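Standup notes
- DV: blocked on the single-chain target, sequence here:
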Amino acid sequence: MPLTGGLPTRIGLGTAPISSHHTAPHWWGPQDRDVAVAAVRAAVDAGVGWIDTAPMYGWGRAEEIVAEALSDGVERPLVFTKCGTLRADDGTFYTDNSPDAVRRDVEGSLRRLGVERLDLVQVHDEDPSVPVEETWGALDALVREGLVGAAGLSNHRVELLDRALAVGPVATVQNQYSLVDRSVETDGTLDWCERHGVAFLSWGSLGAGFLADGFELSELDPDDLRHRLRWAGADAALTARTREAIASIASVHGCTMVAVALAWLTTRTFVYPIVGARTPAESMALVEPLPVLDADELALLEV
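- DV (later): unblocked, structure below
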């Protein structure tokens, strides 16, 4: 399995934002495809060792962008994708984690990414209609066939993590985690990963950008999905306090707010943040040195 001993770099590139397109399930505002390809190449050139993507991101658009970015002979990072989230006829999406659907998704990702083997495939979301044992058996078979290097679970409850582990190895768990969404600290997910020695991949590491330097909600496209997130609504006060705390610490260390937010996540040795980048300049934030936060600074972030 490629994840034995940990991931090649602490921070990975997320590709949901670069898949933004009017035909996609999520709209992050306009995204030029050539810029998206350049952003992926910049991250890889800077030394980022893994990329997180999914068929759902632009309905294959993100995977195709990753494939194009990696087609010119650059040293290939690990590429992680997902399975189980499918497009409905009306353009919406649904979950199907049945063995047949898992295999079809993997075959589609292999084709779009232009590879013979996927480094990691994660089950994207829970499917109440399919026992996780069936899903995990299908993925475990793909690992044994050599089409998949390792398997993980995304957005699954601890009960289902236990049931999957009883069938076969769980290499990763991927859930939302940031300074403005800490539910995995109380629902048992982080404890489970630490107890079992499983890498935890945090999506939404910067709160969909709300914790990034210079973030201005008013400057986003009117239809951008972030206008509808709770950090712009019910949790706006929490977001503001968190940004203020991050900014004060960043000024002391002479670094970016992004670096502080990621430094906080990486205080847990088994947490590997995913960070989306839409431009080459944003990709450089993935390799910025992270400050070492002291006890007082960590306490300040407990807003």
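- Follow-up: The chain is about 35% helix and 15% strand.
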